[in-house]
Specification:
The complex is a heterodimer of chains A (163) and B (588). In chain A, strand 6, helix 4 (127-135) and strand 7 form a beta-alpha-beta unit. Chain A is built from five helices and seven strands, in the order βαβαβββαβαβα. Helix content of chain A is 31%, strand content 29%. Chain A has a seven-stranded mixed beta sheet, sandwiched between helices. Chain A is of the alpha/beta class and 163 residues long. Chain B has four domains: 151-302, Beta-Lactamase, CATH 3.30.450; 313-401, no CATH class; 405-459; 463-586, 2-Layer Sandwich (60s Ribosomal Protein L30, Chain: A), CATH 3.30.1330. In chain B, 53% of the residues lie in helices and 18% in strands. In chain B, the strands form four sheets. In chain B, strands 1, 2, 3, 4, 5 and 6 form a six-stranded antiparallel beta sheet that branches. In chain B, strand 11, helix 15 (438-447) and strand 12 form a beta-alpha-beta unit. Classes of the chains: A alpha/beta (163), B alpha+beta (588). Chains A and B meet through strand 1, strand 2, strand 3 and strand 4 of A and helix 9 of B.
């Protein structure tokens, strides 16, 4: 079976871990985030007639006190960029992270998940901003940890780019 | 040959051959070189030979026979030097065996048949040997002090005793071997020892890589250094190569040579699969061929057995254990026997009238009982010897109560019936029968309703009346011939009749009914009918007067005298028909 390393990136508390919790096989607790700075889960995604094993490196969210260990990106085949729709600054941080990732490991396939779509009324990111991202050629998905919306789609879209 | 360009060529050729050989050789004189060049360029024989060689080299048909001549020698010369040839050939040999097995399995089975039997026999013998060792070890530890300690540990931890013994005698065991793609942390191959439960190795592989990265980032250790992680029971050794890491999960203390062996393995994997590692895109199938290399590391070592000197302790321990077991057996037997006796005793108590057991307990040489007890009931302590139980060990607490089933005993005690009087209680009714004085009956009648368990008093006189009647009616008083005078010596009969007559009157009074006491005069068959009629009546009258004179006053019994001359003759002599008989008739 094909295996691919995927990283999950995003600002602190954008809800990366919660977003995928229901969809992945996990043996490690969240305490690894605050200690080692990464938690590794597994997700199988069918692409065409094959199963792809995504080894998901959920990197601890970046904030002003802690930086993402860029060495964790090494060997990744792609990444998920998670943004909290209710916090504008998480988009800015994601743009920075995306750029730093590209500098560190080169151009890799990635998808963007705009999280917390269930709280759309209190979003600070408008549709025009999202459209700008799409126009840059980015694949943007709306996701919700609460409803599970968009998660499978985002994984499948990313896996398709990898095989 | 004076063309200067020819000289230049000749020089270049000379330089080329010089550098190709790469070694210092003696340079021949220039004229000899020229001659050689001339020969090469213009000698037609040489030219033809070169062309033939060129053709043969490019034509596999010609080349193959020549290579086949040198191939066996080439292989045999290469093999002793290193394993490169073997490793290069391995995948092809494996693949050809697979193909051959797929196409016609018979070839393979025929080929391996001669070795299969001995191999199986050897494996079975080895397995039995291991089993015997394990059993010996387990038995030995079972009866040692340490064994007891481990048994306690097994009980506390919920593991089996065998597991604990193995765990303690374990020096080391390589439980898992992981081959990890270095940059991505993706698992390439995983080998796990038998009976070891491994967590999801793909996640473990990732996390192990992350931790190594973390250590490198945090403490600046150089990339490519060997590393190890140690916990109480496990050690993880990581041996990095340029593109892959070999990690061993070891329980116990890993031996130093393990590290060296791991180095060799990771080097061989890089040598053999270097290109595949370089081009790795997530497909780990090409690394499956390396599985035997990984499995070689799944070794274990256990502590040797204790020397026989130390086995004296187990014998002593065995003796102590034997005594303990014997004591336990004896105690168990007595305890069980005591329990049976106690249960039988309790069963008996449950069926004893006037005792209700509400609580019972059996401790070590002590019994306790509590409940209700009628003072008229049997003493429970006195019942104990019957069941081989010691009454002194009984601690009983009884509350007094009056049991309905003991109403009869209570009535007997309270009413003190005269001899011959029987008392019976049924459904709360006290039935009294037998000979009792009028006074006693009246008192009993008054007292009976106050006795617990008795609601009604019933005087049962039918039996007595029947008895009196039978006794009275069987008596006769005999008379002189032609006289109404009784024969002498009948005083006793008359006395008995009087007593019964008085009793009849008492019974009639108790039950408030009237009784007719008929006195019947008889005669023999001699004499006239009229005379006999008169005589019979006179005899009856005489008897009535005699009885009446002896009884103060009959209240409920009426005496009636009548004559039946010879109407009821008795078979026998005439004398026996000169008599008076009696009949009791019950009125309403």
């Amino acid at each position: 079976m094909l295996q691919k390393k995927i990283c999950m990136l995003g600002s602190f508390a954008v809800g990366k871990t919660s977003l995928v919790a229901r969809f992945v096989r996990s043996i490690y607790s969240e305490k690894y985030h605050t200690t080692v700075g990464v938690k590794i889960d597994k997700k199988q995604v069918p692409v065409e007639d094959k199963l792809v094993n995504l080894i998901l490196w959920d990197l601890y969210g970046e904030d002003e006190f802690q930086k993402v260990h860029m060495s964790y990106l090494r060997g990744a085949s792609g990444y998920l960029l998670v943004i909290d729709g209710t916090r504008r600054e998480t988009l800015d941080k994601a743009l920075v992270l995306q750029q730093r990732t590209e500098e560190a490991v080169g151009k890799l396939p990635f998808v963007v998940v705009m999280n917390k779509v269930d709280l759309k009324d209190s979003w600070e990111i408008d549709d025009r901003t999202i459209e700008e991202l799409v126009n840059k050629g980015w694949q943007v998905f709306h996701g919700s940890a609460k409803t599970g919306l968009g998660v499978e789609d985002a994984f499948t879209a990313l896996a398709r780019q990898l095989v | 040959m004076n063309d200067p360009s020819v000289h230049r060529v000749a020089d270049e050729v000379s330089v080329q051959s010089h550098s190709l050989n790469g070694a210092e050789i003696e340079t021949p004189p220039a004229s000899a070189q020229l001659r050689e060049l001339q020969k090469l360029l213009f000698d037609t024989d040489q030219q033809e030979r070169l062309e033939q060689l060129h053709t043969e080299w490019n034509d596999p048909e010609h080349l193959a026979p020549r290579v086949s001549q040198v191939l066996p020698d080439a292989i045999s010369q290469r093999s002793p030097e290193d394993h490169e040839l073997t490793e290069a050939m391995t995948p092809y040999v494996i693949e050809s065996i697979k193909i051959s097995a797929r196409r016609n399995p018979e070839h393979i089975s025929d080929a391996i048949f001669p070795i299969l039997g001995p191999a199986i026999r050897k494996a079975i013998a080895q397995a039995f040997n291991n089993l015997t060792i394990t059993i010996n070890q387990t038995l030995q530890h079972s009866f040692s002090v340490r064994g007891f300690k481990w048994r306690l540990e097994a009980m506390a931890s919920g593991k089996s005793f065998a597991e604990v013994v193995l765990y303690h005698s374990l020096v080391y065991r390589v439980e898992q071997v992981l081959l990890i793609h270095r940059p991505s942390g993706i698992l390439l191959l995983h080998a796990v020892a038998e009976a070891v439960k491994a967590q999801d190795p793909e996640l473990v592989s990732g996390m192990l890589t992350a931790i190594q990265d973390f250590i490198q980032d945090s403490f600046g250790t150089g990339e490519g250094n060997t590393s190890s992680f140690v916990s109480d029971e496990l050690t993880i050794l990581a041996e990095p190569g340029p593109r892959a890491v070999l990690a061993c999960v070891v329980r116990g203390n890993p031996p130093p040579e393990l590290r060296e062996e791991m180095q060799e393995t990771i080097e061989r994997i890089h040598q053999d699969r270097g290109e595949k590692l370089k081009m790795f895109e997530g497909d780990s199938t090409p690394f499956e061929v390396c599985r035997p290399l990984l499995e070689e590391h799944l070794k274990s070592r256990y502590q040797p057995f204790a020397d026989p000197e130390k086995q004296k302790a187990p014998k002593a321990m065995l003796a102590v254990l034997g005594v303990l077991l014997l004591a336990l057996g004896i105690w168990g037997f007595f305890s069980l026997r005591d329990r049976w006796r106690w249960n039988a005793y309790l069963e008996k108590l449950q069926t004893t009238p006037g005792i209700v057991v509400t609580e019972q307990d059996r401790g070590w040489r002590r019994y306790s009982l509590s409940g209700l007890r009628d003072s008229l009931a049997l003493d429970p302590a006195k019942l104990m010897p019957e069941f081989q139980l010691n009454p002194r060990q009984l601690d009983a607490r009884w509350k007094e109560y009056q049991a309905p089933e003991l109403a009869e005993e209570r009535a007997k005690k309270l009413l003190a019936p005269p001899a011959g009087v029987t008392l019976k209680v049924r459904d709360g009714i006290l039935s009294v029968a037998g000979l009792a004085s009028q006074q006693w009956i009246s008192e009993a009648k008054k007292l009976a309703p106050f006795i617990p368990g008795i609601s009604q008093f019933q005087w049962n006189d039918a039996d007595e009346i029947a008895r009196l009647r039978q006794e009275i009616e069987s008596q006769s008083v005999y008379y002189f011939l032609n006289e109404n005078k009784p024969l002498p010596g009948q005083e006793e009969t008359i006395e008995a009749l009087i007593k019964r007559l008085i009793r009849l009157d008492e019974i009639a009074q108790n039950s408030n009914r009237t009784i007719t006491f008929r006195i019947i005069g008889h005669t023999d068959s001699s004499g006239t009918k009229e005379k006999n009629q008169t005589l019979s009546r006179e005899r009856a009258q005489q008897a009535k007067s005699q009885l009446a004179s002896r009884v103060a006053q009959l209240k409920k019994v009426q005496l009636v005298a009548e004559g039946v001359p010879d109407q009821q003759p008795l078979v026998g002599n005439q004398e026996s028909n000169r008599r008076v008989t009696f009949r009791v008739e019950l009125g309403s």
